[in-house]
Amino acid sequence: MVVTGYCPCGECCSWRRTWYGRAVVAKGPNAGQPKAVGITASGQRAGRGTIAADITVLPMRTQLYVPGYGYGTVADTGGAIQGRRLDLFFSTHQLARQWGVKRLNVRVLKP
Ligand SMILES: [Zn+2]
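A: This is the predicted complex of the input protein with zinc ion.
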């Protein structure tokens, strides 16, 4: 699978701050709506081991082993995450950038 990294920042999660400091969705059908930064599509707080996937390929809560990252659970989605793609959560933008784009054999532990 093609595996990339992301962090909760506006660049990775397409949100921006209004002039009065509120986080809102930057683009798409929900643009301008309030954005819960750091909260995944499953409603849980994102942390290490949070993985975004195409949930038509890998359903929510699927447990995965990603070489070089470790164990994680599908708990998030993303507009660009379609098909055989994964996005791994990192706590900082620098770590996410360092991961880059990798093509890996990801092990599916439990659907
Ligand atoms: Zn980021």
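The first strand starts at residue 2 and ends at 6. The chain has a mean pLDDT of 93.
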